[in-house]
Amino acid sequence: MNASFPMPVTHAAAPSEKALIPFVSVANMMRLVHRIGLEAMLAEIAEVIEGNFRRWESFDKTARIPAHSPEGVIELMPTSDGEVYGFKYVNGHPRNMRAGLQTVTAFGLLADMHTGYPVLLSEMTLLTALRTAAMSALAARHLAPQGAKVMALIGNGAQSEFQAVAFKAICGIDTVRLWDIDPRATAKCAANLAGHGLRVVACATAEEAILGAQIITTATADKRLATILTDNMVGAGVHINAVGGDSPGKTELARDILLRSDIFVEFPPQTRIEGEIQQLDPEHPVTELWEVIAGRKPGRRDDRAITLFDSVGFAVEDFSALTYVREKAVATGLYDLLDMIADPDDPRDLFGMLMRAGA
Ligand code: NAD
After folding, report:
1. How far is the CA of 160 from the centre of ligand 1 (A)?
2. What is the DSSP string of 16-71?
3. Is residue 159 located within the same domain as residue 275?
4. Domain match, 286 and 299 both
5. Which of 73, 205, 257, 352 is 20 to 30 Å from 297 by CA-CA measure?
């Protein structure tokens, strides 16, 4: 277990207390973000992810387990480092928005590998937006051209402001150029970013948004092989942070862009199925981002290279975000205790515990 990682607060003396599980609600997650500060929290989550990517080989890794429907996907994302186990439940339903529901919602759990007892249950809808943005910015810090200041942000939905603020905090960008097919999304994003220290430019087309941008983030939601960026839109020397293509049959980039790019991925067995590279030959060379972060492989080759972070979201990022939140929640007291594990005084007397409760 991480040295800075407190042991479960669940292991108190009284049997009724020892199985109470810390739970971070949406309200407490929001309090935590405001207590720590949004930019600081994004930077700290990126730091934890970076540390865990450096010790990539100590994690059990598996492509996430999807359940597809015509409307979207529900996924389970498990991993473990031998001490702590974590999983996230997450959905992706692009049509939800029309019914006033979010495209992506999530919650997650950590457990002690030695007892199997959960040690944290947390909301992860906000936390997914935070960790996705932190991951994107961390990748860009290793791959984007030196001194990049301008980012195009295509798709101005729920993830977008988190992306903008993370790239400011972690990569030092000062300008975002926004585009969305729905002008209300762009207006919302621009209004939300006011006061966050960024120059925000609302654009009339995707082509206009990428003008002068050294970084292009695509975070659109559409359950199809979409072409948010065409080949002629992407010039030499840019970094593409492709966030929205994350499921079979759901991509954002023209295939020709991929053929001109140096492609960096999280976990190839998952990205080959879900990422932009599902459009390519299964043998097409890609670099695993952890190897760049660990200093084993080069990132950006030169000023003219097009680097592409083919982001789909991987379990180690959620594990990192959950361990970070657990430490902060315990330190601040911003959690509730949930009675979700039956824990009789005599471990073999589960039935007796049930009967005594009715007496
Ligand atoms: P959202 O539905 O809130 O926002 C998506 C936005 O994209 C909407 O405003 C929509 O109008 C816009 N859009 C759709 N088609 C477009 C087009 N052709 N051009 C421009 N804009 C377009 O979704 P969200 O929660 O912001 O998520 C965005 C995407 O990121 C989703 O596809 C989601 O699955 C994905 N995602 C990926 C990760 C990851 O780790 N890679 C994590 C979270 C979410």
Report:
1. 8
2. HHHTEEEEE-HHHHHHHHHHH-HHHHHHHHHHHHHHHHHTGGGSB----EEEE-SS
3. yes
4. yes
5. 257
